[in-house]
Amino acid sequence: MTRKPYLTTVDVALTGLFCALWIALNLTLGPLSFALLGLPILHDFGVFFTLLLIVWITGRFGTSSMAGIIGAALATLLSGMTLMIGFAPSAVLFDLLMSANHHKVRIKAYSLAVTAIATILSAYLAGVVIGVFFTPGQTLRWALTVWGGWHAIGGIVAIAITFPVIIMLEKANVRKIIRE
What we know:
Blueprint lengths: L8 H28 L4 H18 L4 H17 L7 H11 L11 H25 L6 H32 L2 H6 L1
């Protein structure tokens, strides 16, 4: 009797693909967000757009953590912006919180609510970590209120854009096509 591996080769390949997307979005949209708005909103969009899609397509615990940790490490190496590391713990928290949803993003009220809460809390954590460890001269209060809040807003933007994308992908049966 053969054991089926927890992560299939398709899951690993998709994780690699979404790591690359994570890096590309963060190295392009992040600086654009700061240039235009002086805010981190598009950093969070890039992170959580990617994490939401990888959880939706794989439905596996660990894939969003891997994408977040690898993406943060490589983005830091490529850009020299150490603050990117602050998104790694948020990816792990997102992965843990999505366990309440069995790592399924479905077009049902409960699933969407759990996914939204996981995204917003994880984005908030990223803001707090970045505010505390990578923003010199700021207070813990500032990190917990202002910076964490702006990152949470970035998570909300990611939800507002990603949920319609997932709905369209669901209607097109993309997950079924990839799994065949």
